[in-house]
Amino acid sequence: MREDRDLMNCLNVLPTDDEPLTDAEMDSLIRKVLQRTRRQTLRKVRGRKHHWLVWGRVLVSGAACAMMLVGLNGINPALAEGLPLLGDVFAYINAQPKGYLQSEKLSDYAQSVQVAENSAPAGAQQDNLPKTTMQMAAPQEAPYTMTLSQVYCDELYLRVGLIFTAQDDSLAQFDGVTIDPPLLWEDTSDAEANTLYGGVTLNGESVGGDLVPYFRKQDDHTFVCEMDYNLQNYTGDKQDMQASLTFTNLVGVTEGSEEKVPLDGSYSLNFTVSADGTLTREGQMKGGEQNGIRPVSLTATPGETRLQYAAASLPEEVTPYPQILLEDGTALEWVRGTPDENEENGETVWTYTFDAVPEGTTQLQVRVVDKNSEELAVLAEWTVTLPQ
Do 226 and 160 meet the contact criterion of CB atoms below 8 Å apart? Predict the structure, then answer.
């Protein structure tokens, strides 16, 4: 992305009095960062040692290091210890510090499952869940229980709510439970890497999660996690998807400490789920192409909002930044953006995922501003009408 390129250009000319890292030190540091952030596997940095100097300058900065290593999955204690869980993982996560997609109606439309991974026999199905059936398996020696509590799937995302529990007090000392997978090497397959980092398999196709799994502490025996899987690049049928999740290399972590305590057990969850597009709303965008930027689509679901716009060419000094505004001027927060190349005409299509549009909202204002300008100059602005 252009933001990353600008950052790297700035970092590359930063003066520093620190001794440069040796190749061995840099190699070790790069591997640790890749393991923690999952931005890329080692195969993607092989033969690109000229990028290491830039990364080294990022990592020698304490603030930057903290941002990279814990920014995506910062360890946060539960905000309200008295908040009852009652299986509603999405509502609980929604009350935590920003990091996940936010939706005030996600819990209303999610399917409640409440099936533990080691309690259902193979082939078991839930008669009251016509679109979601569960099969769970875990080694008998697994000391903990992982429960698939909620499932939500629209045409954009698959989102699952998970509960990790202990019958004793062995987890009470931790603030969270996450994964500490082994390093990825040249011969690590994409499917294996996907499994190691909590990705889901849908009809045999690997789909990575937006964040590394992190189970937040709800009480001394209960930890909850939401996993979000972007279906944008999924090519299979979205009806009756055979889904499989495996969690291994779990560790307990404590706020303010780098210590990671291994937790025994491997947990596999297999289920069938169908995407429900009945509540998906496609917005009508008025305003047309402006300054070389044209609207492509705006899709609103109960769980998230996806904006796409195209730019054939922009000046190098311009950094586009999208905004979605409600009628009262409130801006939806966007969580991530990925540019896609349209091979037909060479233009870049930018795709951003925002928090969900509040239910009942029918009018939006979409802007693309220049993030590099002091006053956030508006490059394009469109009026969006959503169906009821």
Answer: yes
Q: Name the phi and psi angles at 2, rounded to 5.
A: -65, -35
Tokens of 16: 């520093």
Query: What integer pLDDT is reported at residue 35 of this predicted model?
Result: 46
Residues 6+ apart with CB under 8 A from 6: 319, 372
Alpha carbon distances (Å) from 180 to 36, 136, 212, 243 = 8, 23, 10, 23
CA-CA distance, 333 to 356, in Å (whole number)?
Answer: 9
DSSP H or E stretch at residue 193 = helix 190-196
Q: Report residue 300 as tokens.
A: 């609103």
CA distance 79 to 97: 9
What is residue 25's three-state secondary structure? helix
Q: Taking CA 247 as the corner, what is the angle to CA 305 and CA 102, rounded to the nearest 5 degrees?
A: 20
The pLDDT value recorded for residue 189 is: 87
Q: Packing angle between helix 52-59 and helix 23-37, nearest 10 degrees?
A: 70
Q: Model-level pTM?
A: 0.72
> Can you tell me the mean pLDDT for 9-36?
52
DSSP label of 291: T
> Among 45-54, 257-266, 278-287, whose mean pLDDT is lowest?
45-54
Q: In this predicted model, what pLDDT tens digit does every residue of 124-181 receive, in sequence order?
A: 333 333 244 444 444 445 579 998 989 999 999 999 999 999 989 999 999 999 999 9
Contact 319, 299 (CB under 8 A): no
Helix or strand (DSSP H, E) at 195: helix 190-196
Spatial contact of 259 and 253, defined as CB atoms under 8 Å apart: yes
CA distance 134 to 136: 6
